[in-house]
Amino acid sequence: MPLNSDALALVAEINKKHGAGSIALASSINHYGRITTGSLALDVILGGGWAVNQWHEVIGQESQGKSAIVLKTIAANQAIDPDFATLWIASETYDTDQAKALGVDNERVAVVTTQNMEFAFETIIQGCASRSFDAVVLDSYPALIAKPEEEKNMEDAHVAVGARLVGKFFRKVGAAMKRSLDEPDRAITCFFINQYREMIGGFSPYGPALTTPGGKAKNFAMWSRIEVKRDEFIDEARAGKGKTRVGQAIKVKTLKNKSAPPQQVATIRFYFRDAPILGFFRGDYDLAAEYFTYAVLYNLIERRGAYYFYGERKWQGQDAVLSDLRAELDLQEELRNRVLFEAARPDRERYT
User: Fold this and answer.
1) Are residues 221 and 345 located together in one domain of the fold?
2) Which of 226, 246, 275 is the last residue of a domain?
3) What is the pLDDT of residues 92-147, one digit of tens each?
4) Is 148 found in the same domain as 71?
5) What local confidence, expressed as pLDDT, does residue 350 receive?
6) Which domain holds residue 90?
7) How many helices (H) and strands (E) are present in the chain, helices listed first?
8) Helix locations, 4-132, DSSP H
């Protein structure tokens, strides 16, 4: 039953006093949807991709693939939308060559180079409020330094200065990210790249207890938090030259997800060097392997002994399926759409 006349009158009164769109019926609220990560496996565990107009924390040790995953996200969405623009706050060096190798059009990325925490946060707030960008990236938080800390000597104590600023930042940036509830508006997707540190006084039976800099306030502000960890290296055998290390398998786990089950794991095969024998270039994901894995998982491709079936098609062995997947972009797109549809079904638990 819809709201009664008294409730609707109150809605109209509030909108008149505080501005149109201050209050709206839940059934008419804009849903800004999701943007792709560039990886089908990561899209699936996130619930269809990164939730738009929300914050996402990407966490891990050094050299595990955190920035690469965000750069691949930017590249994938630039390929979809020619107007997709990014504000990149680089407290560490922005590597234009690496970004280009991963598919990023650097002409559509505005880079702010700073280690000043206050300036970085103010710039992000301005960028979010301006509606000029579709994504904002902070890479990375631990390299920022707060002004009170910078002004002190090396031997002076400075406790939790950054954490307090982070809490204040997320309270302020919420207003800058607010978008119309009922009218079309340009939303933004925000990424907070972070690194693990050992927790002082913490205990873990599995090794050193880890935490992320920035305090606990940011954890509540994040829509999703993902952990990025190298699983194994990928080597390519070369005639007369032994093996060359060409990539790595990246394991991604959702530590927090407000719109899909947490503690889900995806594996992405990422190539950081040309692998001509394996058929990959620097910056590539092995997407065919992801399409195959999830198509089999959701029974879209049926396995019967050594054979695989998809509609009227039939392959003998996994390698044959992967070969056709890599060659046929239409087949990739068809399977991608069907996998995401199946993954979003409320009864998807029956597959796991």
Assistant:
1) no
2) 226
3) 899 999 999 999 999 999 999 999 999 999 999 999 999 999 999 999 899 999 88
4) yes
5) 44
6) 31-226
7) 11, 15
8) 5-18, 40-46, 66-80, 96-101, 117-130
